[in-house]
Design brief:
Blueprint (H helix, E strand, L loop, with lengths): L1 H38 L12 H35 L8 H28 L8 H28 L4 H9 L2 H14 L6 H19 L1 H13 L4 H6 L3 H37 L3
Length: 279
């Protein structure tokens, strides 16, 4: 009887995770449909006058992204704060992880479909979309979605400890909030306004703190529990699987951070150039 409990529990947890993933996909598809039905009533911005269907699709799927970010940040704050109170970040578990992680996996799965549709809509008619062209364009993002949605999220549910780190993973969704606003400002012609630059600065700051600095902070917290410092020494005491997982999640964040910083610098330089150019 004791030996049969573990398999039964694993099957139950798998059913829970798959059911939650399906619910997450359905919820975000519904959000997409509602946003699409709302924005299709309005004239697209000048930038998308010739591509109205593309604008409505991007608006709808970015609304879904925003909804996921807001919920994930809410769940992440709740988890991290509650686990901090227990002073046991390694062994402590939190019921919110069992809800938020399957929903996150569902969102990331349906988001791949939305990304594919955008890829199809942006391809020229004489060069149709294919899996190869999709991978060439969005391969890194596809890998990120797969690692977080199909590896990190199920592990967070099945490994019944370390939910503090799952909370930190959810808090990484702070930066996409500003990413959606950046697209909205750009689409409606506010790229040369101060609001666009301020939003860009918030995007970079949140990406650095919640996506890059989150790993040293997590390693430092782990080191505090096991009595090892500084954080980079504590990182070497992690199981090799955790070290590889952390590396795979960190490398894309470094690349995207470099793109964000270089993009903001180029934007500021071009804006100053336009303001100083004689009329």
């Amino acid at each position: 009887t004791i030996q049969s409990c573990a398999p039964k529990k694993a099957v139950t947890m798998l059913a829970w995770f798959l059911g939650g993933t399906l619910c997450g996909a359905v919820i975000h598809r519904l959000i997409y449909q509602l946003a699409h039905a709302f924005i299709v009533k309005y004239e697209p911005p000048v930038k998308y006058q010739a591509q109205g269907s593309l604008f409505t699709h991007i608006f709808a799927y970015r609304t879904s992204c925003l909804a996921n970010s807001l919920f994930s940040v809410f769940a992440g704050i709740w988890i991290v704060n509650d686990v901090h109170i227990t002073n046991d970040i390694i062994q402590a578990t939190h019921s919110m992880v069992d809800i938020s992680m399957p929903l996150l996996a569902g969102y990331l799965t349906i988001d791949l479909h939305h990304m594919w549709k955008e890829h199809v809509l942006t391809r020229p008619t004489n060069r149709p979309a294919s899996i190869i062209t999709f991978l060439k364009r969005d391969g890194l993002m596809i890998l990120h979605h797969a690692l977080v949605g199909w590896v990190a999220a199920p592990l967070a549910v099945f490994v019944r400890k370390g939910h503090y780190f799952s909370g930190l993973l959810l808090l990484a969704e702070v930066s996409p909030i500003w990413l959606q606003f950046r697209w909205l400002l750009s689409s409606y012609g506010y790229k040369d306004h101060l609001a666009y630059s301020v939003n860009g600065a918030l995007l970079i700051a949140s990406h650095f703190w919640f996506r890059l600095a989150a790993f040293p902070r997590a390693f430092a917290a782990y080191g505090h529990v096991i009595g090892v410092s500084p954080w980079y020494i504590a990182a070497t005491r992690l199981p090799w699987t955790c070290q590889i997982g952390s590396l795979l999640l960190t490398l894309p964040q470094i690349y995207w951070f470099w793109l964000l910083v270089s993009g903001l610098v180029n934007h500021i330089v071009s804006t100053k150039h336009k303001s100083t150019k004689p009329s």
